[in-house]
Design a protein that fits this description.
Elements lengths: L3 E13 L5 E11 L2 E4 L11 H10 L5 H15 L17 E3 L11 E5 L4 H14 L4 E5 L6 H8 L7 E5 L8 H5 L4 E3 L18 E5 L1 H4 L2 H13 L3 E4 L6 H13 L22 H4 L15
Parallel strand pairs: 4-5, 5-6, 6-7, 7-8, 8-9, 9-10
Antiparallel strand pairs: 1-2, 2-3
Helix pairs in contact: 1-2
């Protein structure tokens, strides 16, 4: 069903914390009947390759999540769904900042996400530095299942608990998450994309669901997942798989249309330095792209 597609790679300012450290982000855009979508599985996170996903979309099999999401974005444009229509008065959701490597100046962010667990001995110092630089922020600590329960408790015990919004799936043993939730709010991430994992529906404490739409699949699947979380009285945060600023804009529109009011995990546009100064008309010569901007174009 693909009319045309084009692929390019954008060098990241630092290796992304996936796939052993990813120095470049390969992205693809597809065009169908004048509608455009990005389809860019992330190595080390998505199980499908870019070639598999593009073939999946082209044949219409739609077995891979990235192809399913791209297809649903294309269909939404074709139908002119409400979130697709331009509205200069539509507010963008708030964003969290991201600290994946060195601590940068993030004073302007109300909520800051910090990756922990890769160098456990440095985590407390990094977090204290962030709190000094941004004295009014709240922290989201993302451990990517790298730490033990004792290690996480040591980290959260070193900073004021009222400065922590949640700790995102930090434990090697995810069955211990309810124990952690007795101390600090917990967010599910990896578990939401693992059919065998528990949602800990009966656990006490405060819980969040951090959803990666391009891992989940179609927009309708996303809506179902959001409704499920809300039925469990849990807040939802959408996040990306380091997709381009174009798709971040699409996700912002979807978050706004779903009424998600927490700071969304979509503040990674700065990784695409110079975007859209990248000459997409030559780099992506097979596709006439619409105007690219951090704010949604559709």
């Amino acid at each position: 069903m693909t009319d045309r597609f084009a692929v390019t790679s954008v060098r990241m300012p630092y290796p992304l914390p996936v796939g052993g450290g990813l120095p470049t982000r390969t992205i693809a855009f597809v065009e169908v009947n004048g509608c455009v979508a990005e389809i860019s599985p992330l190595p080390g996170l998505h199980t499908e390759s870019l070639e598999e996903s593009l073939c999946d979309l082209k044949t219409g099999a739609l077995k891979t999540p990235t192809a399913q999401f791209a297809h649903s974005v294309l269909m939404a444009q074709g139908r002119q769904d409400a979130w697709v229509k331009g509205d200069v008065n539509r507010p963008l959701p708030r964003m969290n900042g991201l600290v994946a490597g060195a601590v940068d100046d993030l004073v302007s962010h109300e909520v800051i996400k910090v990756k922990i667990g890769r160098k456990p001995n440095e985590d407390v110092q990094r977090l204290q530095t962030v709190l000094r630089q941004s004295p009014n922020c709240r922290l989201r600590l993302d451990g990517n299942r790298l730490l033990t329960l004792d290690q996480v408790l040591d980290v959260v015990g070193s900073i004021p608990l009222d400065r922590i919004e949640y700790v995102e799936e930090p434990l090697i043993d995810s069955t211990q998450l309810p124990e952690l939730a007795k101390v600090v709010p917990v967010a599910l991430d990896e578990s939401l994309h693992d059919p065998a994992a528990s949602r800990h529906a009966d656990a006490s404490g405060t819980w969040f669901h951090v959803i990666k739409p391009t891992r989940l699949g179609s927009i309708s699947s996303l809506v179902q997942e959001v409704e499920l979380a809300q039925s469990m009285d849990r807040e939802v945060v959408l996040t990306s798989c380091f997709e381009s600023p174009w798709t971040l804009g699409v996700l912002c529109r979807i978050a706004e249309s779903l009424g998600l009011h927490k700071a969304q995990g979509l503040g990674t546009a700065d990784l695409f330095q110079g975007w859209p100064a990248v000459n997409v008309t030559s780099d992506l010569s097979e596709v006439d792209m619409p105007s690219l901007d951090w704010k949604p174009w559709i």
